[in-house]
Design brief:
about 20% strand; alpha/beta; single chain; about 40% helix
């Protein structure tokens, strides 16, 4: 990219960025002429959001970003990269399965005459040359950071964005990275914007420092002035230079007093002998914390919270890379499939979409490891598999298809601005493509042209809104039939994409709409759900899901998509079918959406008194001596036993313990269904007691997680009142709609 004389490397004017309704960047304006500009601030001030917005990974609501005089605020990330922007993201984000050399040669596009080549990288970072055959996951933190910087430099940028480049590195590596930034700026070939929490590094590499507070640039000042002003560092940032401020704790926070500031730990043990009610409590001394504040000063009370945070399990990738639904919406159609065997058919649909003005992006899901001309190659998709590309490109075709399906689901979960997705194939291709389709939120168009579409497709569709087109003839070449079917499918997707709202329109509509609640129901809990819905429908959009296995999954898919404001999971009968072997089972991810999202959750044990089978003669022989109710000729209900209820209660309790949002779980002592009230055929107080006691014994109660007994049947007015009261207690106040 040719330099534009007299133009700043980076100019930002009145930038505003939102996450939903959260105003993350609030009118930021700043200019980087040349050299190094450091941005400092506490956690959560918007520094990483600013970086992501500059490089196009986050959309701004308004404002301008100019790079060497060119407006880039509405460009795609890869276009911004081609305009001369390199990015070293926080956390390095190296590919675990690619070697160092593969990383570098994959991104080296400047040719032998470029300022930065692979050879120059190896000269600059000799350690990378020594480790050139090692995979990304085999590198130390410092080596990964070197690789992330080298990867950005190979794009030969004129502007280099570095987000927390020294985070988590040993002091000797920090010094090396600091020297590298100074050298890059001194060469004059590029400007550097660095986000740093290490105040010593920030003031050491830059001439000026921008201090960020609550999404705004609080002030811009000379780096040497900030370095010398300890009081200002503490007042604005709450930090000091660690090498200068390693002072002993005051006497009041040392020794026994310091331990007193950490929570006293007690272990509670309940006797299992005849005296089961006895409880003993023994105090334990808190173990020395492995955490020490290294660059930011931290009082003991904050250290205690850090210990708590460190004890939490690491978030899974779905939560880490969750993208708001409004940012998933775009206009680009993904054409995905096995291009090695279905290339003509997939390209036919791509060309039909292009003819209608729909931007397209091809994604190759082939498992043969052959060269590909698709926009996204099989290697790129396969690299998302936890086991690396070797797990996908194996000699076992079944294993390869399964692994590529998982990799595709992980890949697509991180992709923003998708208008829709279309594919075509046989059973294998359908398995691959629909795995990714199911990972997309409900509402983004999904079309699958398949030879299996005329049969049972529930394993492919799941709880998603996939449209299945029967291919009629095999998807094998183009002929008068396949061209018509494939063309119809492409035109259908184009129509769906054309009617998608813009991100702005979606957000505006969402703000005016009633918040949606997911409610589970069965025939035997219908009166309860109807009464609850009637009480809430003035303020909430009540979405009722029939608890038939797919119903629970559909509700949770909407929750994961960000389309629900809470859950009223009153009918959890699918758990009984899953554990006992009924025909309407939940999957093992049941309750996963409230676990991942932290949305308000009110649950109950609705219809856990039964397991569902088909016609009476289809009930397994092992169950023939059990108690049954023939609901209709096609549905037979079997009463659960005390042991089965106990197992269900323990499983549900374990899942409730994983929820970090507000939880209320209600136990109707008068029966969990119509058939479980006194005098009804499934009334069994002993079995219900086993269920309730297992839940109470398993759940770890907190102020946010409460199990409550209600002296009523699940369909009684008193239980409906308890549901409404529980939901009102944990749901946020409603915003007034215009």
């Amino acid at each position: 990219m040719a330099e534009r004389s007299g133009q700043p490397a980076l100019s930002i004017e009145d930038l505003h960025v939102y996450y939903g309704e959260s105003h993350a960047i609030q009118g930021v304006s700043m200019t980087l002429e040349r050299g190094v500009l450091a941005v400092v601030g506490r956690n959560g001030m918007g520094k990483s959001t600013l970086c992501n917005t500059i490089v196009g990974l986050k959309s701004s609501r308004s404002g301008n970003i100019r790079i060497l005089g060119r407006e880039t605020s509405r460009l795609e990330p890869h276009v911004i990269h081609r305009h001369g922007v390199g990015y070293v993201p926080q956390g390095r984000r190296v590919w675990p399965s690619l070697s160092v050399d593969e990383h570098l040669r994959l991104v080296a596009t400047g040719g032998p005459d470029a300022a930065w080549t692979v050879d120059r990288v190896y000269q600059t970072f000799p350690r990378l040359y020594e480790r050139r055959t090692s995979g990304g996951s085999q590198l130390s933190g410092g080596e990964q950071q070197m690789l992330a910087i080298a990867r950005a430099l190979l794009g030969n940028p004129r502007l280099l964005i570095m987000d927390e480049p020294t985070e988590g590195l040993a002091p000797i590596i920090v010094a090396q990275v600091e020297a590298m930034m100074v050298r890059l700026a001194g060469e004059g070939a590029m400007a550097v914007l660095v986000v740093e929490q290490n105040i010593g590094v920030a003031t050491g590499v830059s001439d000026h420092v921008a201090i960020m507070v609550n999404g705004r640039i609080n002030r811009m000042m000379e780096a040497r002035a900030l370095a010398a002003d300890r009081e200002l560092q503490q007042r604005l940032l709450g930090v000091g230079r660690q090498d200068e401020y390693d002072l002993p704790l005051p006497e009041s926070t040392t020794g026994e007093n310091a331990e007193a500031l950490l929570a006293q730990v007690y272990r509670i043990e309940r006797g299992e002998a005849a005296d089961a009610g006895s409880v003993t409590a023994t105090a334990e001394s808190p173990q020395p914390s492995p955490l020490r504040p290294d660059r930011w000063k931290m009082p003991v009370t904050s250290l205690r919270q850090s210990i708590v945070e460190a004890s939490r399990p690491e978030d899974d990738s779905r939560r880490i890379f969750a993208i708001p639904f409004s940012e998933r919406i775009g206009r680009t159609a993904l054409v995905a499939g096995t291009f090695d065997t279905k290339g003509r058919e997939l390209k036919f649909m791509r060309d039909r979409l292009k003819a209608l003005g729909i931007p397209t992006r091809t994604v190759d899901l082939s498992t043969t490891d052959k060269p590909s001309t698709a926009d996204v190659t099989p290697l790129q998709v396969a690299s998302m598999h936890p086991g690396g590309t070797s797990a996908v490109f194996s000699k076992d075709r079944g294993q390869s298809v399964t692994a590529m399906a998982e990799a595709f689901a992980r890949w697509i979960a991180r992709e923003p601005r998708i208008g829709g997705i279309i594919s075509a194939g046989g059973s294998g291709g359908t398995t691959l493509a629909t795995a990714g389709m199911r990972a997309l939120p409900v509402g983004i168009p999904k079309v699958m042209v398949s030879t299996v579409a005329a049969g049972d497709v529930r394993d492919y569709v799941g709880a998603s809104d996939i449209v299945m087109f029967h291919s009629v003839a095999d998807v094998q070449g183009l002929n008068s039939i396949t061209e018509q079917v494939l063309g119809n499918a492409a035109h259908a997707l184009a129509g769906m994409i054309a009617q998608l709202p813009t991100r702005e329109a979606y957000e505006a509509k969402r703000r005016l709409a009633r918040p949606a609640l997911g409610i589970t129901m069965f025939g035997v809990t219908t009166p309860c759900v109807q009464a609850v819905t009637k009480r809430l429908e003035a303020d909430y959009d009540c979405l009722v899901f029939h608890a038939t296995g797919t119903g629970g999954r559909a509700m949770e898919a909407l929750g994961d998509s960000g389309l629900l404001a809470g859950f009223l999971d009153l009918t959890t009968t699918e758990v009984a079918d899953m554990l006992v072997g009924g025909i309407l089972p939940a999957d093992r991810d049941r309750f996963g959406a409230p676990i991942r999202t932290g949305l308000p959750y009110v649950g109950s044990a609705g219809a856990l008194d039964m397991v569902n089978f088909g016609p009476r003669d289809t009930v397994p022989a092992r169950c023939q001596s059990r108690k049954f109710v023939v609901h209709n000729p096609n549905v037979t209900l079997m009463r659960t036993t005390a042991d089965e209820n106990r197992a269900a209660g323990e499983w549900i309790g374990q899942r409730l313990n994983l929820m970090e949002g507000p939880v209320r779980f209600l136990l109707p002592e008068g029966g969990v269904s119509m058939l479980d009230r006194p005098g009804a055929p499934f009334h069994d107080p002993e079995a219900d007691a086993a269920l309730f006691e297992a839940i109470e014994r398993t759940v770890r109660p907190t102020s946010r997680r409460v199990v409550e007994r209600v002296r009523a049947n699940i369909n009684d007015t008193a239980f409906v009142d308890a549901v409404i009261n529980a939901f009102n207690a944990i749901s946020p106040p409603l915003s007034k709609r215009a």
